[in-house]
Amino acid sequence: MNTAASCDAVEILETLVGFPTVSSGSNLALIGYVRDFLRDHGVDSHLVFNVERTKANLYAQIGPNVAGGVILSGHTDVVPVADQAWSGDPFRLREQDGRLYGRGTADMKGFIAAVLALVPEWRAARLKRPVQLALSYDEEVGCLGAPSMIAEMSQRLAPAKAVIVGEPTMMKLVTGHKTFAGFETRVRGREVHSCQPHLGVSAVMTAARLVCWLQDRTDENRQAASAEGTGPNADEAGFDPPWTTLHAGMISGGTATNITAGHCRFSTDIRCMPGDDPDDWVARYRSFASDVDSDIRSAHPEAAVYVSDPVHIPGLSPEADGAAERLVRQLNGDNETGVVSYGTEAGQFQAAKYSTVVCGPGSIDQAHQPDEFIARRQIDACAGFLQRLTRTLSD
Question: Which residues are catalytic?
Answer without folding.
Answer: 77, 139
